Each structure stands twice: as structure tokens, then as C-alpha cells.
């Protein structure tokens, strides 16, 4: 990921946030993300986010689990080490269904969890920049990506006009990185004060 | 808002034609099957009536169950189409009366040439000299027990079905935001779930359906029949909701509500398979002749086509077609799958009952289809009549706002 420059606006009311999101999008700014203390219904539509494809990944992981289970068990019991269990056929599909089901669920669950972590760039043990300390408390924080051609003053003035309580510009790593919370962030020098 | 439902003449005519076909099939059945000297034909006459009346009673009762369950959980999303579930529930008494008559007729009047009740063998054979196993089960499997449970279950279901509707209508004239009736519905829901657990979910399918093969038993059989009835009952509700939306009613029902109904159809198809498989795998694995006799006829005998199509229609099709989110938000796939699921579980009930009665001589023919159409006609006629009698939007329901803003 890259170190980028962000304009950050903190709102204290979701009723102010929704019109602000619409204004920001209409003005052509690119919203990096919005951080809210709780799940706000309808915000994903307001931000124009696409429906996630995570469930398709989950289906594929599930199929991998099914085929792993059926393939592995059938290889063991029909060719590698066939054992007669109570006169049942070697290819005893009904007896394998519980294991197959469990492996399907396990693959789908673990795979989807890891994929979700990757998509959201979060993981236990990795760091992520926090734009505002109150974004998990009572503030709705919107981060807008800036580039070299954007006028910072104009953006901040615009954000203030949409009802933001606090605005500032931050230089931050947009993704995740390894490290510990008690260690200084690598780009701290870029954000004096 | 278009909250009144007028029965379109097309729907009324369809239902009347279906009822006429059902009556014609019944008369034809009496003439050719009941009057014949062939014991199998006479057994078929009664067994088909038993199959259809029990199936329609159980899938209508599901509407009361879903109302009670959501009321108890303070679930508001159902409110948008609650009148549909109420209308189906309020008409349970019709199917209850029909199946009550048929069940009691089978127990008390049906005998073959040798004086044996070939549908419920425990009625006549539970004597020490005749059938020791059935004699051992006589404490539970006897006509007194059967009649008691049947009348209690059917009577209570009919009562609760009408009561839920009456309470909901009374809420309309209650003062705004009055919670008196709300808590009454809450208490009645708890009571109904207790009744339902002691009837549909445990005793009644043992007596009505499992005792057709009285030597064989399975403890989870009632759960299995409940799952079967529940998923087809939800499909039935969905068909009514789609029909009313096509007529321009039920404007409060959005794709979000349809999505949730689709989720119920999907999830409980899987639940049904889970129970079906739990029953099958344990019997297959233990391989005890007392138990495998149930699947011998069904899986390897003449019923194998029904056995496998049952699995494909009720598990493979729902899981593949209803898994994706867009298909649960699409009216066509939902309607199609609802019809497929109702037909599939009708077949499921068929293969629960018929092998024990008819042995190898099964037919799905004019008689089976005619009786099924007759019951569908009764259902359409009765439910549509009840739907016209009140506003389709429960305007004074305390959960109305919750259902409007519902997001699945």
C-alpha cells in the first residue's frame, strides 16, 4: 500500500453525515472510507459501495472443502487402506457426509474470515492508521483521498461547509502493515504534532 | 393505499374448477376404488385422502406457527403480510374437519376382506394371538389414544388459527398504541407453541403417519414431518404474497420481505435434509432389519424413483437455485421454487404413507392428482374469501413501522 494524503472530516450526527456524503460525491472527491461507531444502515448505498463478492469466494471455499473431504476419504478407504467396517461397502458415501459437511463449513468459514480480513485490510497483529480517536466513540469520520493537484484549503473549507465539526489533513498509510501499537508509526515524522 | 382485496373472477373460477375436479375425482374414486372388491384399491382410496388431508392441514398450521414464533420473538418483519398468514391460519379448521373425518373413518370403518385394517394395522391386529409387537405397543397405539390426540390437536389448531385472526382484527379497533392485545397475542403464542410442540412436533405424526408401518419407529420422525410441512408452509405463504402483490395489494411488502421468505425456504430445505439424512444414515449404518425395512421398499423397491426425486427436488434444487442472493430477491425464481417445494414435499408425504399401505402397487394417477387439485381449490377458495373480509394492512399493529423499514 501507499502513503497518501487524506482530508479528514469528523461529524457528530449521522443526519448531517448523509447529506455530506452525497455532497462530497457530487463534488467529485474520492471517499477513502467512513468510520462510524456503529453500523449505519444505508451508508453503503449512500457511499455507492458495490455489493461484496465475498459470498462467491465463500462458495468456492466450500466447494474446495467438499472436494478435499470426499477426495481424501475416498482415496483412503478405497485404495490406500481399505478396511471392512461392519460389512459396509468401501465407498460408503452416507458415512462420509458428516465429515464432508464439517470440512465444507470449516473451509468456507476460515477462508471467508481470512478473505474478509484481507479485503478490509485488518488482521490481529497488524496496524492500521486511525484517523480520529473518537471514530469508535461518538464521531462519524470521513477520509477523502487527496492528490498533488488538490487544494487543501478548498477541501477543508468545503468539508466545514458540509457540517463537519473537525477537519484536518493527514498523511497516512492507506493499508495495513506489521508492527505494534506501542511502537511509533513509520511515517510519524510526516505528521508533526 | 390499496389495502382491500377483491377476489378476481379468474381466481374464484379457478378455485371452483379445482374443487369440481376434486369432487369428480372423489366420486370417481368412490365408484371405481371404494366400491371395488380389490383390497388394494380400497386402501388406495383412503390412503390418498389421508395423505392429502394431512398434508394440507399440516402446511396450513405452519402459518399459525410462524405467527406465534415471530410474536414471541417480537419480530416485526412479518407484519407487512401478516394478514396472509392469519387468513391461512383461520382456515385450518376446514382442513382439520376434513382430515378429522377421514382419520376417524379409516380407524373405525376401513377393513379389508379379512377384517384387517390395512392402513392402521394396530387397530385390528394388536392382539396377543395376532401380532405380539403391536400388542406390546397397545398402550400408545390404540383407537382411544388416536381419537383423543387427533381431536385435541385438530381442535386446538383450529381454535388458535381463528383466535390469532380475531385478536389481530380486534387490534384494529383498539386505541392507538394500546398494548393490551399485543401482550394477549404474546401469551397465546407461547401457549400455541406448547400445543404445537406436543402435537405436530411429537405425537401426532407418530399416530397419523408413522403408525402406517407400526412395527417401524423413528424418534425424530415428527421433526422430519414438521420440517417438511414448515418449508412447504412458508412456500405457500410466499405464493399468496406474490399473488396479492401481482394484484396490486400488499404495497408494504418489499424485496426485503421476499428475501427473508426466500431465506426461510432455503434454510429449512437444508434443515429438512439434515433430519432426513439423520434418519437415513443411522438406519443405514446400524443395518438392523427392524429399521431398514422402511428404506428397503423406498430406496431399493418400486418407490426408488420417488425416493431419489424427493432428495433432488427438496434438497439439490433449493440449495443450488436459492443459494445466491439475487435469486432470493427475484419473484420468478421464488415463485417457481415455492411451487417446486410444495410439490416436492407433497411427494415426500406420499412416500411416507403409501409404501406402508399399498406395498408395491403405487400409482400417481387421475385419482391422486384430482384429490390434490380439490384440496388446492378448497385452499384458494377459503383463504381468498377470508382475505377479503378485512384490510390487508394491519394499520393499528404496533410493529407496522418496523415492518416498513425492515431490511433483510
SSE string of chain A, helix = H, strand = E? EHEHHHEEHEE
The total count of strands of chain B amounts to: 0
Strand content of chain A: 15-25%
* Main sheet summary of chain A: 4 strands, antiparallel
Written as H for each helix and E for each strand, in order along the chain, the element string of chain B is HHHHHHHHHHHHHHHH
What would you note in describing this structure?
The complex is a heterodimer of chains A (193) and B (408). A four-stranded antiparallel sheet of chain A has the order 2-4-1-5, with helices on one face. Chain A has a two-stranded antiparallel sheet with strand order 3-6. Chain A has helices spanning 14-26, 43-47, 54-80, 93-120, 152-161; strands at 3-11, 30-35, 126-128, 140-146, 166-173, 176-178. Chain A has two domains: 3-37 and 135-190, Alpha-Beta Plaits, CATH 3.30.70.120; 54-120, no CATH class. In chain A, α3 (54-80) runs antiparallel to α4. Chain A is elongated, with a radius of gyration of 25 Å. Helices cover 43% and strands 19% of the residues of chain A. Chain B has one domain (13-390). Chain B is 75% helix and 0% strand. Chain B is globular. The A-B interface holds A 41, 51, 55, 59, 86-88, 94-95, 97-98 and B 277, 280-281, 284-285, 287, 323, 325, 407.
Amino acid at each position: 500500500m501507499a502513503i497518501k494524503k487524506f482530508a479528514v472530516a469528523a461529524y457528530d450526527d449521522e443526519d448531517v453525515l448523509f447529506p455530506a456524503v452525497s455532497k462530497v460525491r457530487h463534488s467529485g472527491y474520492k471517499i477513502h472510507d467512513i468510520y462510524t461507531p456503529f453500523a449505519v444502515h444505508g451508508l453503503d448505498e449512500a457511499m455507492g459501495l458495490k455489493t461484496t463478492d465475498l459470498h462467491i469466494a465463500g462458495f468456492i471455499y466450500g466447494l474446495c472443502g467438499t472436494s478435499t473431504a470426499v477426495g481424501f476419504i475416498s482415496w483412503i478407504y478405497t485404495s490406500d487402506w481399505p478396511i471392512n467396517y461392519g460389512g459396509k461397502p468401501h465407498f460408503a458415501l452416507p458415512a462420509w457426509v458428516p465429515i464432508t459437511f464439517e470440512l465444507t463449513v470449516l473451509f468456507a468459514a476460515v477462508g471467508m474470515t481470512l478473505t474478509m480480513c484481507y479485503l478490509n485490510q485488518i488482521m490481529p497483529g497488524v496496524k492500521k492508521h486511525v484517523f480520529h480517536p473518537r471514530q469508535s466513540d461518538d464521531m462519524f469520520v470521513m477520509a477523502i483521498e487527496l492528490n498533488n493537484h488538490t487544494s487543501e484549503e478548498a477541501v477543508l473549507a468545503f468539508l466545514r461547509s458540509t457540517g463537519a465539526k473537525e477537519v484536518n489533513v493527514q498523511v497516512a498509510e492507506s493499508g495495513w502493515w506489521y508492527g505494534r501499537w506501542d511502537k511509533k508509526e513509520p511515517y510519524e515524522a510526516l505528521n508533526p504534532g | 393505499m390499496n389495502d382491500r382485496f377483491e377476489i378476481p373472477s379468474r381466481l374464484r373460477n379457478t378455485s371452483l374448477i379445482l374443487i369440481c375436479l376434486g369432487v369428480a375425482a372423489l366420486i370417481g374414486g368412490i365408484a371405481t376404488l371404494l366400491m371395488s372388491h380389490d383390497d388394494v384399491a380400497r386402501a388406495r382410496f383412503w390412503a390418498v385422502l389421508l395423505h392429502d388431508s394431512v398434508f394440507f392441514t399440516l402446511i396450513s398450521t405452519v402459518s399459525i406457527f410462524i405467527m406465534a414464533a415471530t410474536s414471541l420473538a417480537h419480530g416485526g418483519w412479518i407484519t407487512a403480510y401478516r394478514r396472509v398468514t392469519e387468513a391461512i391460519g383461520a382456515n385450518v379448521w376446514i382442513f382439520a374437519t376434513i382430515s378429522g373425518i377421514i382419520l376417524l373413518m379409516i380407524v373405525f370403518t376401513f377393513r379389508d376382506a379379512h377384517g384387517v385394517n390395512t392402513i392402521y394395522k394396530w387397530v385390528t391386529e394388536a392382539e396377543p394371538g395376532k401380532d405380539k409387537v403391536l400388542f406390546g405397543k397397545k398402550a400408545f397405539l390404540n383407537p382411544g389414544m388416536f381419537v383423543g390426540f387427533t381431536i385435541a390437536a385438530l381442535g386446538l389448531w383450529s381454535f388458535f388459527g381463528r383466535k390469532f385472526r380475531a385478536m389481530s382484527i380486534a387490534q384494529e379497533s383498539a386505541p392507538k398504541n394500546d398494548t393490551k392485545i399485543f401482550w394477549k397475542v404474546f401469551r397465546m403464542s407461547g401457549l400455541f407453541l406448547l400445543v404445537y410442540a406436543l402435537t405436530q412436533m411429537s405425537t401426532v405424526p407418530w399416530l397419523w403417519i408413522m403408525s402406517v408401518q407400526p412395527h417401524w419407529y423413528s424418534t425424530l420422525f415428527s421433526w422430519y414431518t414438521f420440517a417438511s410441512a414448515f418449508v412447504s408452509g412458508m412456500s405457500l405463504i410466499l405464493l399468496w404474497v406474490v399473488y396479492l402483490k401481482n394484484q396490486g395489494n400488499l404495497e408494504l411488502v418489499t424485496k426485503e420481505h421476499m428475501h427473508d421468505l426466500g431465506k426461510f425456504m432455503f434454510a429449512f430445505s437444508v434443515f429438512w435434509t439434515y433430519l432426513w439424512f439423520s434418519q437415513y444414515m443411522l438406519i443405514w449404518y446400524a443395518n438392523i432389519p427392524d429399521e431398514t425395512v422402511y428404506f428397503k421398499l423406498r430406496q431399493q423397491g418400486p418407490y426408488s424413483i420417488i425416493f431419489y426425486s424427493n432428495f433432488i427436488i427438496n434438497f439439490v434444487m433449493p440449495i443450488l437455485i436459492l443459494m445466491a442472493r439475487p435469486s432470493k430477491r427475484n419473484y420468478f425464481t421464488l415463485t417457481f421454487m415455492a411451487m417446486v417445494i410444495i410439490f416436492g414435499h407433497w411427494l415426500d408425504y406420499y412416500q411416507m404413507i403409501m409404501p406402508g399401505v399399498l406395498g408395491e402397487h403405487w400409482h400417481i394417477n387421475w385419482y391422486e392428482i384430482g384429490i390434490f387439485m380439490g384440496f388446492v381449490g378448497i385452499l384458494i377458495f377459503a383463504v381468498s374469501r377470508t382475505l377479503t373480509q378485512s384490510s390487508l394492512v394491519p394499520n393499528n399493529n404496533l410493529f407496522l413501522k418496523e415492518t416498513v423499514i425492515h431490511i433483510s
